Amino acid sequence: MMFKNSVKLLMANFATVWKLLLYKLIVLGIATGLFFIGFSYISGTESFINLWDSVLSFLFSFNVGASILELLQSLLNIFQVFFAFCIDIAINNTGIFILYFFNFVILTPFLWNLSNIAIGETLYGYMASLTKYSFVGSMIRKLGTACLYSLLKLAIMLPINILIISGFYGILTLVTFGGVVAILVPFLMFIYLIALVGLKITLFSGWMPATIVYNCNVIRGLKLGFKAVFRRFFKVFSTSIIIVAVILSINLIFGSFSFIITIPAGSAIILIFQMVMFFGSQGMRYYVDLDTILSPKKLEQTDKLKKIKDII
Predict the structure, then answer these.
(1) What pLDDT, on a 0 to 100 scale, did the predictor assign at position 227?
(2) What pLDDT shows up at residue 78?
(3) For the segment 6-40, what is each residue's pLDDT rounded down to a tens digit?
(4) Which one of 77, 95, 116, 249 is most buried, counting C-beta atoms within 10 A?
(5) Any idea what DSSP says for residue 105?
(6) What residue segments make up the domains of the chain, in order of their start?
(7) What letter does residue 295 receive in the DSSP assignment?
(8) How far apart are the C-alpha atoms of 237 and 220, rounded to whole Å?
(9) What are phi and psi of 293, to 5 degrees?
């Protein structure tokens, strides 16, 4: 039901969503522009040429229907060549390494999440009373809160993402064993990604909505968000898994170039899902579209019953 209502809200608010998609594409454009600042310094290095050839080989194989094992071998090669490339530029082009680290590890994630608060306010207005907020106006009005939210989220998500990528690489290396183990790797990777990424989405799905709905600071919003999530954890987790599985499946079906659409569109559906989850956890009525109003069961009563049961 959460997934279904999130999709309905996505379509009902597409006038706002396309602005979010445009913003995300601008962020990707900024990241690409900063990458090309140092491109002339690294384009002739052997490590970059190897990385570029590996990426092109993977994209070509992905889009012409190569076997799964071939794709995994190619992906593993990208990881290994990428590590070698990072070591090379860190030693021989330290300034470029710092630029790229700042660009892709700090600036791009910060800008990527900077619009979340504005989208949350826009969705809150629509869902609560069909009030229309300007996306740009919300970005300006909530810029201070958005910056704090994005910085704190960056600090929290960076080690989590490193752990997820490390685990993904560890599973990917199993393909070198061949035989039955290699055959199991695609299934293990798919399960690992939807489970870990779904869990990450679940745990922090109440953060942005709580900050908007209760008009509080981001620290209190994080605390209230956790409380909202754990009221219906398994339902939120299962819906998160569905969202991740759908996005991954689309990429597998339509090829690597579908990332251009699924990355910003996936970000939009996740933000909408977060608002739907929070409204439901608080028992707040909300508009799905102009003709549909949902009135979730108030979970405060359930919380009180649980407390009484624990006391008894």
Answers:
(1) 93
(2) 92
(3) 877 877 777 777 888 888 889 989 999 999 988 88
(4) 116
(5) I
(6) 2-45+93-296
(7) -
(8) 22
(9) -120, 130
d(CA 241, CA 198): 5
Helix (H) or strand (E) holding 193: helix 179-203
Contacts by 81-90, CB closer than 8 A, 24 or more apart: 81/47, 81/50, 81/51, 81/54, 82/51, 84/47, 84/50, 84/51, 85/45, 85/47, 85/48, 85/50, 85/51, 88/45, 88/46, 88/47, 89/42, 89/45, 89/47, 89/48
* Mean pLDDT across 98-106: 94
Left if phi > 0, otherwise alpha if psi is -120 to 50, otherwise beta: which for 63?
A: alpha
Alpha-carbon distance of 115 to 275, in angstroms, equals: 15
Per the CB < 8 A criterion, the answer to whether 290 and 12 are in contact is yes
- Nearest Cα neighbor of 198 from 160, 150, 159, 250 is 160
What angle separates helix 179-203 from helix 68-92, to the nearest 10 degrees?
Answer: 70
Buried b (16+ CB within 10 A) or exposed e, 204-235: bbbbbbbbbbeeeebeebbebbbebbebbeeb
The SS3 assignment for 289 reads strand
